[in-house]
Specification:
By secondary structure, the protein is mainly alpha-helical. It contains 13 helices and no strands. It has 2 domains: about 100 residues, Up-down Bundle (Four Helix Bundle (Hemerythrin (Met), subunit A)); about 140 residues. The radius of gyration is 27 Å and the shape is elongated. The two termini are about 40 Å apart.
């Protein structure tokens, strides 16, 4: 799957429209204030078609003609303006290209995430935002991996897959929690943490072990909340261990 900001599609359309509306005598190069002119917009259109793999449009005669035109414009000085002949070539071919694009894009689809909440929507790009400061960095690598995978599954409306990854993430943190020598783990009252973990086991982990188990989007969202709470409840032990390793790197390397 190609990861593309939605702004790319917005600018792609405006660039095509700009090229259709230009007139002879307009500047070829960008202006000194950052305004994008003919050369930049044409470059962007061709590059975006390649990035989105619009094969029919890329193989069209119009695209080939526009590439040749761009080669000529690339050698023009920054003070150059569009000639009448260049304008003719540009408008004829950008109109033809737009017709091809509309046919090809009509058969293509892009997908945007449908998150149950803003937090899980942000997780693929910023998973640390789900947790209090410095919690995410202290988690085992496998837990971080599964949290990101769960967020992607949630965004793609795959709640059962999201539940699978969330439960794996909790299990990875739980293993690290019990392996930790942090004093907080040995001395703090973990009654509420164990209650949450027990509920997760009974309501989600045990059912998930059955091959025919499925979860709804609402159940997955509930699991998100419970998982973040449980992981955050174990995080102090992991943070304490991480801080100790940072303070005594040689010793922690020897012990490992």
């Amino acid at each position: 799957m190609i990861r593309t900001p939605l702004q790319t599609y917005f600018y792609f359309g405006t660039a095509v429209r700009y090229l259709q509306d230009v007139r002879p005598g307009e500047p070829i190069a960008d202006d000194t204030h950052g305004g994008r002119r003919i050369r930049t917009n044409l470059t962007s259109v061709l590059q975006t078609m390649a990035r989105l793999n619009l094969s029919s449009s890329l193989a069209s005669d119009a695209a080939a003609n526009l590439r040749r035109l761009l080669e000529h414009l690339a050698t023009a000085g920054d003070a150059s303006v569009l000639s009448n002949e260049q304008h003719r070539v540009l408008t004829e071919n950008i109109d033809n290209l737009r017709a091809t694009l509309e046919r090809e894009l009509g058969a293509r689809h892009t997908y945007s995430s449908a998150p149950p909440c803003a937090a899980t929507h942000r997780a693929p790009d910023d998973p640390a935002a789900l947790f209090a400061p410095r919690v995410y960095a202290a988690l085992p690598a496998m837990a971080r991996f599964d949290i990101e995978e769960a967020a992607r599954c949630t965004a793609c409306e795959l709640p059962t897959a999201a539940a699978f990854h969330l439960l794996r993430a909790v299990a990875a943190v739980l293993q690290a929690f019990y392996a930790s020598n942090a004093s907080w783990r040995r001395t703090a009252d973990h009654t509420e943490l164990f209650r949450r973990l027990g509920y997760l086991r009974a309501a989600f982990r045990d059912p998930c072990r059955h091959p025919d188990a499925t979860f709804t989007a609402e159940e997955a969202q509930r699991l998100w909340t419970l998982s973040v709470e449980a992981i955050s409840g174990m995080a102090p032990a992991l943070k304490e261990a991480m801080e100790a390793d940072a303070a005594h790197p040689a010793e922690s390397a020897y012990l490992s």
